[in-house]
User: What shape does this take?
Amino acid sequence: MGPLNIFHQNADNPHGYARGLKARGKTILGYFCSYTPEELINAAGIHPLRLFGAKDDTGIADAHLQAYCCSLVRGALTDVLSGRLDYLDGAVFPHTCDSIQRLSDIWRLNTNLKFFADVVLPVKLTTESSRRYLEEVLRKFRSDLEKGFSITIPDERIRASIKTYNAIRTSLKALYRMHAKKTSPLTAGDLNAIVRGSMIIDRTEAASMLADLAAQIQAPGKADGSEKRVMLVGSVCEHPDIYRLIEQAGADVVWDDLCTGSRYFEGLISEEGDPISALARRYHERIICPAKHSSVTGRGENLVTLSQEHGVQGVIFLQLKFCERPASRACSWRSRPSCLPKVSS
Ligand code: SF4
Ligand code: SF4
Assistant: This one.
């Protein structure tokens, strides 16, 4: 099976992959959000597994949640309460939206996994003091992992993990760029599966397969150039069918601003100096999601820059039902239409 099929298969069936890992004795921590410092989990020799939540009946979770909680939180709680996550050794909750924070409390009270951590990251990422605070939060998380699993995580292991993540992010960005330039046979749906699969499978294997894929696919794209170039913007995209719908409508997602897309791979980590400081700088300076604050117009300006850089003709805001941090809310386009990129026909 080629790398592309492996990414698709595991993005479609993360539980199957995780059960296989568990059978081989691997410790697995679940996480929900691209603000989770998974480089530290990986450095601890623990497998970080992104949880996307059940998409079927979530009745078992409804008893614990208000009706306005998003489908990601509802699905994740359904999965753990119904026993589908029986391979997990614990879970990590970064401080982002209110729904994730309250899920953390409900999870802690209703499960008895070995490990649980709240990673209370700052919301406002504009000051030197918030960077220093973030660094201390990461040091505490490292210490929580060490205590929780009776291990030590040497700096060298963190540096090695940083290299692996830099390799993953570099290859993901290269694959996105090839698609945007129409020099790749991969579809936008393939890229979505590749990014989600990279959050599921062993990271060393992911880095190696992504490098192979990037080297293998230097071929002209399938698209004939007549399709409209659009950008998909939102929080999580866990509905791959959206890509087919957009293609059928005569458009192509040439870039995105999603935490299951470019926000995951943008921003490499310095491989020099203290590795925790380097991680803190990356999480402080990365392109923010709508649950964080850098400036009033920062997100909107970033979307304008991305749309100009990739020749985007239209933007689709993809909103999970009841997401309290919809991408459009933190964007200034609605209130400042002059920010809108020029649309060609
Ligand atoms: S949109 Fe932001 S808060 Fe929500 S899951 Fe993604 S990174 Fe986390
Ligand atoms: S940012 Fe939105 S989609 Fe993500 S967990 Fe929070 S409410 Fe749900």
User: Anything to note?
Assistant: Confidence is low (pLDDT under 50) at residues 330-345. Strands lie at 28-31, 47-50, 90-94, 115-119, 228-234, 251-257, 314-318. The first helix runs from residue 3 to 12.
